[in-house]
Amino acid sequence: MIEINEYFKKALKIIEEGKNIFITGRAGTGKSTLLQYFRENSTKNVVVLAPTGVAALNVKGQTIHSFFRFKPDVTIDKVKKMKIKRKDIYKNIDVLVIDEISMVRADLLDCMDIFMRNNGRKTRKPFGGVQVVFFGDLYQLPPVVKTKEKEIFKDYYKTPYFFSARCFEDLKLEFVELEKIYRQKDEKFIQLLNKIRNRTITDEEIEILNQRYDKYFEPSEKDMFIQLVTRNEIAERINNNMLSKLKGKIFYYRGEIEGEFERDSIPCPEELKIKKGAQVMLVNNDSMGRWVNGSVGKIIGIEEDETDIIVVKLTDGRIVEVTPVKWELFRYYYNKEELKIETEKIGTYIQYPIILAWAITIHKSQGKTFDKVIIDLSGGAFAAGQLYVALSRCTTLDGIILKSRISRKDILIDWEVVKFITRYQYKKSEEKMGKEEKIKIIEKAKEEGRKLEIVYLKTCDEKSKRIVKPYEVGEMEYKGNKFLGFKGYDEKSKELRTFRIERILSIKEI
């Protein structure tokens, strides 16, 4: 049963009004759940796309490249020259949803925009006049720009992120941040994660995390810790090494591809190699609800038959029988008789939904939830958001073991992201309620001796709800810089504080 919280309601209302929107939120706030709910309950012609094959498979959509018929080396000039015979599907989209927007490069967004202008309904409107809905968290892993592309790329775009695309300003995106976290329940751990995300964490708080450091920790067999590492080759080496230590017969299972199932969409190995005693992860949501994508367990038996049954004991102690499953790859098409965009199956992949899971990369852990993790940043973090993604996979701080101590240099953040997120929220707030209106509310509360509830956003993208009693409002000065602000007694800090008007996202009397 999906809980429709206040943030979900706000986002759904904006979508229903036909406005373009960027829906973001920290890890574990339910972005995927909201996307699924919207698609299942919408009466509009909705197309859901994602930048990678596995991400598209997870949302039962298509990759951006396959839907728009882009080749891997697509450029804006190549899109302008594309000749599309059957344009009916592009002319009949009502809502275009892009999941994992943080991984979509600026140039790819511009390619989509030009394609939709050329082949959609309205050539003069962004994305051909189609409503766009973006889901993603810019504080998680960034888009990939290969080394040889970097020099050329920075001549055209300020950053690789989607918000640097030339079409971005015309989109006039509404902004909703989902704030209720479902993955973690411990408020202190949630606060630490937020401070890692925004790089506002203090040295004392880093030391709280470093209390989980244990270089020589070796999990017992029954503990089922999963190790999060920075690179594929490290994960493969650990998994192969652990598998080779197990006694007994090796079982090989080959996946079956039928139709147009792209290889980058395959969620588990074509050549699966396992033994009894292997630690594994299940990589699908079981149709009977026995496990979810990311559930970890240990193989306790393999019943050999015409189709073998792999018996897995999950971390919660339940024992499940795993048989091969069929993944289906879909393609969107326009049904002229029904006047609807529908999906057709174009390929299938049949395999046991299992991968070896003593270790996986931080990148592949994105979107998953674990109870016990060992985080190994040997050599340090190398991508913005990498440490945040790793730490936020775990449900509790006590479930984390650090193989190396966290230092401030591991907390990588892209300040272009921070700048965009804060400035965009200031701008949207100003559009909804101007400075003059905010000042009127503050002056009225001051005269009447009333308190105000404000949502305040610092430039480091740290948001807080505060109860303040105003005493002074007008032009103020800090380090020679003048600004509009007000002074008031802040109930949270129990002291007199100064607040900048431009940083107040919302304000009301209480």
From TrEMBL:
SUPFAM superfamilies: P-loop containing nucleoside triphosphate hydrolases. One of its GO terms (molecular function) is DNA helicase activity. GO terms for biological process: DNA repair; telomere maintenance. It comes from the Bacteria. Residues 17-256 form the AAA+ ATPase domain. Pfam families: PIF1, UvrD_C_2, WYL. It comes from candidate division WOR-3 bacterium. SMART domains: AAA. InterPro entries: AAA+_ATPase, DNA_helicase_pif1-like_DEAD, P-loop_NTPase, PIF1_helicase, UvrD-like_helicase_C, WYL_dom. This is WYL domain-containing protein. Signal peptide: none annotated.
